[in-house]
Design goal:
CATH class: Mainly Beta
Radius of gyration: 19 Å
Shape: globular
Strand content: 25-35%
Strand order of the largest sheet: 6-5-4-2-8-1-11-12-13-14
CATH architecture: Roll
Structural class: alpha+beta
Helix content: 10-25%
Number of domains: 1
Largest sheet: 10 strands, antiparallel
Order of helices and strands: HHHEEEEEEEHEEEHEHEEHE
Length: about 280
């Protein structure tokens, strides 16, 4: 987080202190801020990818079973757009089916295509969803078009942690006023940060946030690793994971749905994007 970006959070700082939250706690909260990049079809930022478009994959990469959402050109991302150790070049391809029937199951994947990889075009409409009218119509409603990037600050939208062995929660460690701070960010971020339907890095958000949404991804990951036989343990600790991307499909009939892709820190560093897990939150 650059000093210039932190300075953009000054209105939040001033309002938090005016509410009676101790200044030192407000500063600790601001210390958690992370840079992220929001991607949208409007604005004047650089073009860094697109919703939809041709599905280009290396010959030895299986066609994902989930619908194709977007591609991101990592070379085109602004410098220091996120604090994620992303590859400096190549493309990230995001896939997701934003419906899980209320079950906590993996609904997406990520493919990294190196810059020097020879690719071939694949059929975007060959997944399980293409044979069911309801599913096909949902995917046909996915947004299409170029994506422009804006670098912006991100603060936690959640404010509690689960107490081990209990159904109760507690404020985020070190932040006794975490609820007030998260609620203030929800009320002010529209005036401070630039939003967009797709976000890389930063903190996960969804309607009525309480716990970190990455928690549900981690829970799903543990089950998915066992089912897939990944051969090595997957951490059940949320601090070992990081949000890779958030996507609000903005599909009619699924208003408020948000897809979260998350990955373990060690897998991101090793570029094992095939171990990315995705979940969807939707409160109909």
């Amino acid at each position: 987080m650059t000093p210039e970006m932190r300075n953009t959070l000054s209105p939040f700082r001033d309002k938090a202190i005016a509410q009676g939250i101790p200044a030192d706690e407000v500063e600790r909260w601001l210390d958690t801020a992370r840079p992220c990049v929001t991607l949208s079809q409007g604005g004047d930022g650089p073009v860094v990818g697109m919703f939809g478009g041709p599905l280009m994959l290396p010959a030895d990469t299986p066609t994902p079973v989930f619908p194709f959402v977007a591609s991101v050109d990592l070379t085109a991302l602004p410098a220091d757009a996120t604090d994620l150790p992303l590859p400096p070049d190549g493309h990230l391809l995001l896939f997701a089916f934003p419906d899980d029937d209320g079950d906590l199951v993996n609904i997406g994947e990520v493919v990294y295509v190196p810059a020097d990889a020879a690719t071939e075009e694949r059929d975007r409409n060959s997944g399980f969803w293409s044979e069911v009218d309801e599913f096909r119509k949902m995917v046909e409603a996915f947004p299409q078009g170029r994506l422009r990037a804006t670098t912006t600050p991100s603060l936690p939208c959640h404010y509690a942690v689960q107490i081990p062995g209990s159904t109760h929660t507690a404020p985020l460690p070190g932040h006794p006023h975490s609820r007030e701070l998260a609620e203030l960010w929800e009320a002010t971020r529209g005036d401070i940060a630039t939003g967009g339907p797709l976000q890389l890095g930063g903190f996960a958000s969804e309607e009525a946030v309480h716990l970190d949404p990455v928690n549900s991804v981690v829970e799903c990951a543990v089950k998915t690793a066992e089912a897939r036989g990944w051969g090595e343990a997957v951490s059940g600790a949320v601090e070992d994971w990081v949000l890779l991307a958030d996507w609000n499909p903005r599909i009619e009939g699924m208003e408020g749905a948000v897809v979260h892709w998350a990955i373990q820190h060690e897998d991101l560093t090793a570029r094992r994007f095939d171990r990315t897990i995705a979940t969807v939150f939707w409160n109909p």
